[in-house]
Amino acid sequence: MKEIIKENEFIGRISEVQKNSFTILYKNEELPGKLRGRFYGMDAECIPVVGDYVKFIYNHDGDNMITEVCERKGILKRPDQAKTGVEQYMAANVDYTFIVTALNQNYNYNRIARYVSVALQGNSIPVVILTKADLCSNPGRYVTEVEGISDKVLVHAVSALYEIGMEELKEYMRPDVTICLAGSSGVGKSTLLNAVAGSEVMKTSSIRESDARGRHTTTHRQLYVCDCGTTIIDMPGMREIGMADVGEGIEDTFSDIAELERMCRFSDCRHDKEPGCAIRKAIDDGQLSEERFKLYKSLMTENERNYAKKKQIAKWVKQEKKAGRKKWN
Asked: What are phi and psi of 131, to 5 degrees?
């Protein structure tokens, strides 16, 4: 990372965000930080999130002044509320996104596909971790199913309790690597991290046997640095993840379908009854499942709908800001 540093200015990494307060990790020390005033007139995507590298002016008597967000190599985002399409920026500069799913009632193919699309859109490699493999009679079936989501996804079936598959995960635990843990509560994220890190990095909590749902151990995004030098970003459990402004990520996830679409006779093909439709031919020939195509269409439709809402909301916000400036001038 080549950044121009001014005198008395340093580069640290955001490890925690609590409303308007930030924690900056600098040389293994956590420093309190505040944003310089100019940030408050900027769009949400310009505000630092966990995982961002930032420039700051050191203050040994109080809050350190964050002056700039360094260039990101990627950012994970989702709609804050699926009904509005407003985007929530979750974590930045993530090398691998560990999509942790338990092999019990928590397993949901469609939700995993959504996470994969979000990871790919954020320039992060999706790694699906199927936990509690010891409780599943045929984990290999699920591994094969998840591998079919995308040729860009990596899949591991593990059991932290019996150390099944854990050696495979240690290959990711390298210095200068950032891993984001994503998934629902109760899927074993904390147990998984502690097992791989070899120490109790995060607290764990039990799950309700009646519905396999866990108590929320993580309440906000937080960054940890393991003894091996790997950086972990833990996110609160999310049972739902919407789509907005992740069209490229969806196309990367379903690259086989995107390629077939380009082979259709008509550029505006609806893949219904049009002649020369490569999608329908692939389905009829058994090369593409109807269910996979329906999921692709569903995610693309949701993404386009929420992205349109996001653009409209941004327009309204801009108009409100402009009206406010006129009022006070």
From this structure: -85, 170
Contact, 281 vs 257, CB < 8 A? no
The enclosing H or E element of 110 equals helix 109-121
- Give the burial string for 194-224 (b: 16+ CB within 10 Å, else e): bbbbeeebbeeeebeeeebbbeebbeebbbb
Retrieve residue 68's tokens: 């700039």
Residues 125 and 226 placed together within one structural domain of the fold: yes
pTM of the model: 0.74
Distance CA 164, CA 147 (A): 19
The number of beta carbons lying within 10 Å of the beta carbon of residue 177 is 16
Query: 3-state SS of the chain: helix, strand, coil percent to 5?
Result: 35, 25, 40
Between 114-128, 161-175, 183-197, the lowest mean confidence (pLDDT) is in: 183-197
181 is a domain residue: yes
- What the block records as the tokens of 317 is 């916000």
Q: How many domains does the chain have?
A: 3
DSSP states along 229-292: S-EEEE----S----SS-HHHHHHHTHHHHHHHTTSSSTT--SSS-TT-HHHHHHHTTSS-HHH
Residue 318 lies in a domain: no
Task: Note whether residue 247 is domain-resident.
Answer: no
Domain that holds residue 259: 254-304
288 contacts 282 by C-beta, under 8 angstroms: yes
pLDDT tens-digit series, residues 278-329: 888 888 888 888 888 888 888 877 777 665 555 554 454 455 445 544 444 4
Residue 236 and residue 244 in contact, taking contact as beta carbons nearer than 8 Å: no
pLDDT in tens, 204-260: 444 434 444 444 444 567 898 988 899 999 887 555 565 455 667 678 778 888 888
